[in-house]
Structures are given as structure tokens and as C-alpha cells.
Specification:
Number of strands: 22
Structural class: mainly beta
Oligomer: single chain
Helix content: under 10%
Strand content: 35-45%
Number of helices: 4
């Protein structure tokens, strides 16, 4: 079910406003009559229940926890939005916050819909003055000196200048620590949720931001299955000896990522995330996720065997083990000469049971690499890659499966003929 984040903005009394507003906004070029309508916002999560990696933002509570969102506003007067002659003079990284876990939202000082004189030749309406809005989340103060205490400021270190003509944009970079990675959202401009060419509504209508995920995710689930060759080998050991049971035990899983370090997100879009490559002294960064550590028994399900194949379980012929919750965000754009990859290492042993005790073969580690460019949808925002591993005795084979950030199923009831 889609959830809405509604910003309730109440009009102050006229007596309170009179000393503060004398007929214009903070920008004297944008005339606003006293007592006019304050600008209010709605925020909708396009994918409200997605959970793909650490610190994901998928509902109003998390959006509130992650410092709310930022808004840029470009005043265009009687003209429609054009990136060639506008700049965010009306709102510049306006900070919208909540003090009640996302039930209500505030920003200050309030902005009012601009009015003005003149006929709007060729544009519907009498004297419509337009403002175009652009939003992102989480809000950043673009202070990047402390990546651990201010991860949003580190991951979103810069914006286009307030006086810069053209589409507003932000710079995004991956956090060096996976625990602090930031899920970047942007307001999608669609026919259902327009963000440009807005004007004072005739009713109590709010500017509706429909937030989409700007990033993609890799490795949020890893599936391991044994090859037919290793299954046959284990089955033969059981049939030709006193061994009564055997299994393939996974003792270590490590994924090393090489990912694009930094890129620019242009906040003007036609629904799809508008990523652009930029020059960077550090074009790629590396990240490592350890799921099971052979040197740390506590990581191995409290010393319980984690098996990929077990001869004592009839259904083990199709046994697949899935590890979830280890996803890493990546920027869905690849720099020339710097491929984005995920190197998967699996450590395993064959355990056999004979008499009254288990015996473990020497551990073996296999390694294989997934290249993101091999998958057509890997560079689309809001996608994620499942990693599939086929385990052999010495080496492994790794593939990936692309899926949307969230899969929504619909049940349709129909009448029988």
C-alpha cells in the first residue's frame, strides 16, 4: 500500500504576518500579496516496502529519521521551465523536517505562491506565475568533514550553485564504510507527479514529490547450490564406504566490490534517474562484505553446520541456501575503463559422518567475478542484482539475476466462462 508523507502548513493570522511580510517574498522579484497561499508539499514513496541494503529509505518514518528531504525551486514567472535561463532562486536546498516521526512536516521560513501582473499570452490561465520544484533525500548540509557522524553530508558533498543557470544537480559519492551508506532518493517527474511548471492551486492542493531510488543494489541476496558433479562425488563416498551421511559445509563467504566512486545526479528528469559521469581523482572504490568468516565460528550460525548439500535430506538434490541483507549500493553508471564488479569467494568443506563422529575434509576456496556490465538492467536506478553461485570442488561459477528494487504482485479476480 502506498503511503503518503503529508506536509501540513497552516496559515498564520494576518496580524502575525503583517510585520513580517510587506507584499513580497524573500526575493523582491517575486511579488506575493499578504495572506496568499503558502506552498505545501506531499511526498510519496514509489516503492514503499523495499529493503535492499543498510539504511534504506522506504517510508515516512525512515525519511524523518534520515533528516527529511531538500527542495530546490526555480521561479519562471509567466514562462514554462527551461534549463537555459533559470536557476534555483526561489528555494535553494530548503530543508523539510519532521519532529513527530513523519506524521507532520515543517520548513521555515514559509514560502508563498508568487503573483504578478501581465497577461500570459499562449499560456492557459489569466496571470499564472510558475515555480518548478526539484527534491532529493536525505537532506544534506554538504559538510563532508566527518563521514561517520554526518554520512549524508559526506555522500552528498556538493550542489549546483544558487546562481548557476541550468538544471539543479547534486554530487553523490559512495561512503567508505558500508554501515553508513546512504540510500539516495529523487523526485520523479511524471504526468501523474509533475514537479515542473507548478502554480498556485485553486484548492488545498500540495506539490506532490514521488520519490524513487536513484541508486541500485548488488548482492542483497546470494544463493549457493552444489553442482551435479560434487553431488555425485559425495553420493559415491556414502555408497562405497561406512559413511552414513555427508554434506557440503559453507564456512566462508566474502564479496569484494569495485564500484564507481562518484557521479552527478541531475534533479531534472523525465521519470528515470538522470546520472552523469564526472571527473574524479578516485574513479572507483572498493568495498568488502564478509557473510561467513572461517576464522570466526560465531559467524557460522553459532557453530551449527551451514550446508549447501546434505545426503540425508531427500530434497537436498535442489538444496539452495540464500543469504540476504548484505546488499551494497552502487551508482548505476559506469566510467569508461573502470568496470564495476563483484568478486565472490566461497570457502567450503565436505563433512562426513561415520560411526559416532564427523570428519571434515580440508577447506577449499573458490573465487569468481560478476561484471555488472554483462547485465543489461544493471545500470538502471532502482534495480538490484541477486548473485547465484554454483559450487564445485575447487572453483565456483557465479551469475547474477536482475530484479526491480521491489517486486509487487497483483491478484486479479475474474469470472469463469
Amino acid at each position: 500500500m502506498t503511503r503518503h508523507l503529508t506536509i501540513y502548513i497552516t496559515m498564520c493570522s494576518l496580524l502575525t504576518l503583517l510585520p513580517l511580510f510587506t507584499g513580497c517574498t524573500n526575493d523582491d522579484d517575486h511579488q506575493t500579496a499578504v495572506g496568499e497561499t503558502a506552498i505545501a508539499f506531499d511526498a510519496t514513496m514509489a516503492q514503499p516496502t523495499a529493503t535492499r541494503a543498510n539504511n534504506d529509505i522506504n517510508d515516512n518514518a525512515k525519511l524523518s529519521l534520515k533528516s527529511g528531504f531538500g527542495v530546490f525551486g526555480c521561479y519562471t514567472g509567466l514562462h514554462y521551465y527551461s534549463d537555459s535561463n533559470v536557476h534555483p532562486d526561489f528555494m535553494y536546498n530548503e530543508h523539510v523536517t519532521s519532529s513527530d516521526n513523519g506524521l507532520t512536516w515543517q520548513y521555515s521560513p514559509l514560502k508563498y505562491w508568487p503573483n504578478g501582473e501581465g497577461e500570459a499570452t499562449g499560456i492557459t490561465g489569466d496571470i499564472p506565475h510558475y515555480v518548478s520544484f526539484f527534491a532529493y533525500a536525505p537532506w544534506s548540509d554538504n559538510i563532508s568533514t566527518s563521514p561517520d557522524t554526518n554520512p549524508a553530508g559526506y555522500c552528498i558533498p556538493s550542489f549546483s550553485n544558487q546562481g548557476e543557470l541550468g538544471n539543479p544537480w547534486l554530487t553523490y559519492r559512495l561512503h567508505p564504510d558500508i554501515a553508513y551508506q546512504i540510500d539516495l532518493l529523487y523526485a520523479s517527474n511524471t504526468q501523474e507527479h509533475p514537479i515542473v511548471d507548478q502554480r498556485k492551486p485553486e484548492t488545498d492542493q500540495k506539490v506532490n514529490f514521488c520519490f524513487e531510488h536513484a541508486l541500485a543494489c548488488v548482492g542483497d541476496k546470494i544463493s549457493i547450490i552444489c553442482s551435479d558433479a560434487i553431488k555425485s562425488q559425495i553420493d559415491n563416498r556414502v555408497r562405497t564406504s561406512t559413511i552414513t551421511n555427508a554434506m557440503v559445509v559453507i564456512t566462508g563467504i566474502k564479496i569484494e566490490y569495485t564500484l564507481t566512486s562518484k557521479a552527478r545526479l541531475v534533479l531534472w528528469n523525465s521519470g528515470e534517474a538522470n546520472w552523469q559521469s564526472i571527473f574524479s581523482e578516485d574513479p572507483v572504490c572498493t568495498r568488502t562484505v564478509t557473510i561467513l568468516d572461517p576464522n570466526d565460528p560465531a559467524d557460522d550460525a553459532n557453530n551449527k553446520p551451514v550446508y549447501a548439500y546434505n545426503t540425508s535430506i531427500p530434497s537436498a538434490i535442489t538444496q539452495t541456501n540464500d543469504w540476504t541483507g548484505y546488499g551494497v549500493y552502487y551508482i548505476p553508471i559506469e566510467l569508461t575503463g573502470y568496470p564495476q564488479t563483484a568478486k565472490v569467494s566461497i570457502t567450503h568443506s565436505i563433512a562426513t559422518y561415520s560411526g559416532s563422529s564427523w570428519k571434515y575434509d580440508a577447506e577449499k576456496t573458490g573465487t569468481a567475478t560478476v561484471n555488472l556490465r554483462d547485465y543489461a538492467d544493471a545500470y538502471k536506478a532502482g534495480k538490484h542484482l541477486y548473485i547465484n553461485v554454483t559450487l564445485n570442488q575447487v572453483d565456483i561459477a557465479v551469475t547474477a539475476a536482475i530484479a526491480p528494487w521491489i517486486v509487487i504482485t497483483h491478484e486479479v479476480e475474474g469470472e469463469e466462462d
